[in-house]
């Protein structure tokens, strides 16, 4: 019998999440004109049932809602600070994309939600995000709060060895582009470069501003 490794399981879960995102968009195509149609690469028009309200705790220990966090276009990622490679690489890429956009005159905020409620304190999150970017916002919360945010964005995570202080956590690795009031509009996979992400986000922001937002 073939043994499925944790890494293989995580990859399979990420593939299922990505497929689910695309299916959700395809299933939810509506009749309204899509202001972002010319920008889309990963998803197809309409209003998706991805994202929604949440209540979490920011890196300064303050309770915040999604309305407090998403005050401008944002790049949202779910992960954890103890992650040995994927999360630092992905968050660094997101921070680089935000820097590229800043140089072009676009103000975009990287946001990092930790799924590691046992280890990622607000203080630890602040250290992590400060290293990544002074603009990055770190969020955590109770198990229930984080699980609710994860469900809203259709993400996956699973603690491999609960109670082990060195445990790894399997999790999906998409980055979400979220706009104030509108919510989720696009996702980016791990193979998207910072430059590619910046180009795509700029298109979305231009369309958003062009619609008078």
UniProtKB/TrEMBL annotation:
Which residues are connected by disulfide bridges in this protein?
A: 83-87
- Return the similarity comment: Belongs to the SCO1/2 family.
The Thioredoxin domain is annotated at 45-210
Which Pfam families does its entry note? SCO1-SenC
In its UniProt record, a GO molecular function of this protein is: metal ion binding
**According to the lineage, what is the superkingdom?**
Bacteria
What name has this protein been given in UniProt? SCO family protein
Leader sequence segment: 1-23
Q: What is the lineage of its organism?
A: Bacteria, Pseudomonadati, Pseudomonadota, Alphaproteobacteria, Rhodobacterales
Matching InterPro entries, A to Z? SCO1/SenC (IPR003782), Thioredoxin-like_sf (IPR036249), Thioredoxin_domain (IPR013766)
User: What organism is this sequence from?
Assistant: Paenirhodobacter huangdaonensis
Question: What SUPFAM superfamilies does this protein map onto?
Answer: Thioredoxin-like
Q: What keywords does the record list, in alphabetical order?
A: Copper, Disulfide bond, Metal-binding, Signal
Q: Which residues bind Cu cation?
A: 83, 87, 171
């Amino acid at each position: 019998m073939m043994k499925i490794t944790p890494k293989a399981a995580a990859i399979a879960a990420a593939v299922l999440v990505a497929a689910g995102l695309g299916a959700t968009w395809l299933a939810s195509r509506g009749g309204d004109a899509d202001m972002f149609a010319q920008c889309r690469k990963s998803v197809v028009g309409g209003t998706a049932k991805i994202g929604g309200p949440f209540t979490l705790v920011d890196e300064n220990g303050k309770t915040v809602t999604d309305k407090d966090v998403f005050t401008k276009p944002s790049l949202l990622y779910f992960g954890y600070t103890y992650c040995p490679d994927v999360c630092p690489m992905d968050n660094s890429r997101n921070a680089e994309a935000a820097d590229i956009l800043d140089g072009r005159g676009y103000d975009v905020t990287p946001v990092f939600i930790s799924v590691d409620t046992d280890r990622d304190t607000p203080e630890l999150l602040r250290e992590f995000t400060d290293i990544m970017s002074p603009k990055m916002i770190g969020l955590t919360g109770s198990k229930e709060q984080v699980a609710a945010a994860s469900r809203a964005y259709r993400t996956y995570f699973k603690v491999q060895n609960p109670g082990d202080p060195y445990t790894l956590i399997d999790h999906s690795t998409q980055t979400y582009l979220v706009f104030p009031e509108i919510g989720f509009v696009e996702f980016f996979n791990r193979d998207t470069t910072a430059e590619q992400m910046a180009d795509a986000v700029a298109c979305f922001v231009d369309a958003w501003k062009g619609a008078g937002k």
